[in-house]
Design a protein that fits this description.
heterodimer, A: 188 residues, alpha/beta, Rossmann fold, 5 helices, 9 strands, 23% helix, globular, B: 401 residues, alpha+beta, Anthranilate synthase, 19-stranded antiparallel beta sheet, 31% helix
Chain lengths: 188, 401
């Protein structure tokens, strides 16, 4: 299996790379340096975390839109927001900023990849959040922050797409690898 | 002449030398009789690192010891920096032929004792000139402007943590070696060093190691979190303070993940381990909150890749590193030179150590400069952080009076 990790020059990308490397051949490419060939041969495209907002990365948004119906897509943090943006969502500022926080999140009945009503402890680094109401016929919010109710996971019921607002790659997420495994092993 | 006498005259002479604290052995090492002195710049850096790839020391004194400056390290990862119009080198490495170990006894290891003793004489004490006033840049007005700009950058997620540096400077001639040992009596930091050359001098009491490589293992020990010993009395209390202080704790988390990331660029998959999470180190005036993270280097990883992945050290810059450096280099007008660069030694691919240059005085052309930086925090004010920078720099500024 070929995985392509698109790096938005974050200081957490390579933590994610180590998590992903156990699941196949991993290639890491800078967001301004992604070649057509890498995209074509990949089975899974992963959008890394990174600074700023989705609209700062128009090429990544184009890649998402072009491949969303064709390949498994995973987005982490900024990657989650790229997916949300690609599905018509808006990314906005939040009152309380979560940088280096460990909080609880809970899954709901809409999740296809995770058990319903499960509680997980996760690490978070985000200034921005998905603005709600977020309306999409195929994309569902399947995890929320216990404290603030902010959206923590987006899963598509139509395509093989999953985004996590939190960081499975952080040492603050005790079972990070399991999140990645469940997403990668999920079959549409 | 016995070894102690040789040492005493050497220190009082004007011979070029480097003093380096070895905190593992709890002694000082003095290097001199340099057969090579390589001034680094963007054009020769790769060549130098390639040369080191093949270098292997087989004598106790033989090594390359020196520093990479901040601007060089930024350019090395393709970032724009402010132009430094002075002739100060962007990095310098020395290859010594003499090493003197200062323990309870003085041990001299040298290729040539004749060379070591040649022209060695005590200098008449230079007249210590009067110092002039210490100036600071950016001043409070400009600092406030940058601070508020960076707050907006944090709100917008463009940086998660960013540390603005300030430069304190004045003119005064320094008795470098004496000042260094005075400082060591008060503040014996694990990564202290002193460089005395014809062109420039450095006095440093840096507390932070950026990375050490022993064999195939690389280890980094980032510091994030500082509390004054006036405020808390014991290590136990300090631990509690760091645990209860939300801001310090979250900042520390971020730096742990950042360093895990930087190590992950050059280590075997899933070999990165947090060996020691959040332990307290005690200094003369402060406690530091430190973590220790290690990894096993990839087979055949190049030295240049290690430097690119690890430098400049993230804990003193902010996170994510690349964009935060871009924001800093746009707003800061003073070249940082040695500040937040790295000093260390290289004995072989399996044996090297580099620190982060903070808490240091650079003396260049009679001009002295000290930098200090602290983080932009949303619920803090520019005035508070401006003052905190001054406190960090104060013990060094006292030496410039």
């Amino acid at each position: 299996m070929n995985l392509l990790l698109i790096d938005h020059e974050d200081s957490f990308t390579y933590n994610l790379a180590h998590l992903l490397s156990g699941f196949g051949n991993l290639e890491v490419k800078n967001y301004y340096d992604v070649e057509e060939n890498s995209l074509k041969k990949s089975d899974i495209i992963v959008f890394s975390p990174g600074p700023g907002k989705p609209l700062d990365y128009p090429v990544s948004l184009d890649i998402y839109n072009f491949y969303k119906a064709k390949k498994k897509i995973i987005g982490i943090c900024l990657g989650f927001q790229l997916i949300a943006n690609g599905e018509g969502g808006t990314i906005s500022k939040q009152e309380k900023i979560f940088h280096g926080y460990q909080t609880y999140i809970r899954t709901n009945e809409k999740s296809l990849r995770f058990p319903n009503n499960a509680l997980y402890q996760v690490g978070r680094y985000h200034s921005l959040k998905l603005k709600e109401p977020f309306n999409s016929s195929s994309m569902h919010i399947t995890m929320r922050c216990e404290e603030t109710n902010v959206a923590m996971c987006l899963e598509s019921h139509k395509y093989d797409i999953c985004g996590l607002q939190f960081h499975p790659d952080s040492f603050l997420t005790p079972n990070g690898r399991q999140f990645i495994r469940k997403i990668i092993q999920y079959k549409k | 002449m016995d070894n102690a006498e040789i040492l005493s005259i050497l220190l009082k002479s004007d011979k070029e030398l480097i003093i380096y604290r070895n905190s593992e052995k709890n002694n000082f090492e003095i290097y001199t009789d340099f057969i090579k002195k390589i001034k680094l710049n963007t054009d020769n850096l790769d060549k130098f690192l390639n040369k080191l790839e093949r270098f292997k020391s087989n004598k106790p004194y033989d090594c390359y010891i020196g520093f990479f400056g901040y601007e060089l390290l930024c350019k090395n990862i393709n970032l724009k920096v402010n132009k430094d119009n002075s002739s100060f080198p962007e990095g310098v490495f020395f290859r010594p032929q003499t090493k003197i170990i200062v323990d309870k006894r003085v041990k001299v290891i040298t290729k040539s004792k004749i060379k070591l003793l040649k022209d060695l004489k005590v200098l008449n004490k230079a007249k210590i000139s009067r110092s002039n006033k210490i100036s600071v840049s950016p001043n409070i007005k400009l600092y406030e402007k940058i601070f508020n700009k960076f707050k907006k950058n944090i709100r917008a997620g463009e940086t998660y943590q960013i540390k603005i540096a300030q430069k304190y400077s004045n003119k005064k001639e320094l008795d470098v070696v004496n000042l260094f040992f005075d400082l060591m009596k008060k503040n014996l930091s694990p990564e202290s060093f002193c460089v005395r050359t014809k062109d420039f001098n450095i006095i440093s009491c840096s507390p932070e190691n950026l990375f050490k490589i022993k064999g195939e293992k690389i280890i980094t020990s980032p510091i994030a979190g500082t509390v004054s010993r006036d405020k808390v009395k014991s290590i136990k209390e300090a631990r509690k303070f760091f645990q209860n202080n939300q801001k310090e704790d979250k900042e520390h988390n971020m730096i742990v993940d950042l360093e895990r990331n930087d190590l992950s660029r050059i280590t075997k998959p899933n070999s990165v381990k947090i060996q020691n999470l959040k332990f307290v180190q005690k200094y003369q005036y402060i406690f530091h909150n430190v973590s220790e993270i290690s990894g096993i280097l990839l087979n055949n990883v190049k030295l240049s890749s290690i430097i690119k992945a690890m430098m400049p050290g993230g804990s003193v810059i902010g996170c994510p590193k690349t964009n935060t450096l871009k924001l800093l280099n746009k707003e800061e007008k003073e070249p940082r030179r040695i500040y937040t660069g790295s000093f260390g030694y290289y004995r072989s691919k399996q044996d090297m150590s580099f620190n982060i240059i903070i808490r240091s005085i650079l003396n260049f052309k009679k001009n002295n400069e000290v930098f200090a930086a602290s983080g932009v925090i949303l619920d803090s004010t520019a005035k508070n952080e401006y003052h905190e920078n001054y406190l960090k720099a104060k013990s060094l500024l006292d030496l410039l009076k």
